[in-house]
Design goal:
Elements (H helix, E strand, L loop, with lengths): L6 E7 L2 E15 L5 E5 L5 E5 L5 H18 L4 H7 L2 E3 L5 E4 L6 H7 L1 E8 L2
Antiparallel strand pairs: 1-2, 1-6, 2-3, 2-7, 3-4, 5-6
Length: 122
């Protein structure tokens, strides 16, 4: 099993998010209508849907971009919203990691399919 820590790196220019790097597991399953339900539990139990396996990454990127836009436009900002979900900032405040004391956390993380995504937000 691969040990990793879910991570989000945020790059801002002139106080606007330019890009975001996300490393975290996702889980997916095929629904009765043959669409694929994709779960991103480390972002507030976010769910999205994909039409096929090739569409999963696009669906996740679009869902994360919507989360970022909502956090920036009507929330307290992306970093603040992540902190409310249990993310902790590193020394530079642009890198956030999940911190937890749940004993089964590492095992749970290893059961998901880990994705690394770069999103251009601007």
């Amino acid at each position: 099993m691969e040990n990793f820590m879910p991570t989000i790196e945020i790059i801002r220019e002139a106080n606007k998010i330019k890009s975001v790097k996300v490393i975290m597991p996702i889980w997916h399953s095929v629904c009765d209508d043959n669409f694929i339900q994709v779960k991103v539990p480390l972002l507030g139990d976010m769910e999205t849907f994909a039409s096929n396996e090739d569409d999963i990454e696009t669906a996740v990127k679009e869902a994360i971009q919507c989360f970022i836009m909502a956090a920036e436009d009507i929330g307290q900002g992306f970093e603040a919203e992540l902190k409310q979900l249990g993310w902790k900032s590193e020394k530079n405040n642009s890198t956030l990691k999940v911190k937890t004391n749940i004993p089964a956390f590492e095992f749970m993380m290893d059961t998901g399919e880990t994705h690394e995504l770069w999103l251009q937000v601007a």
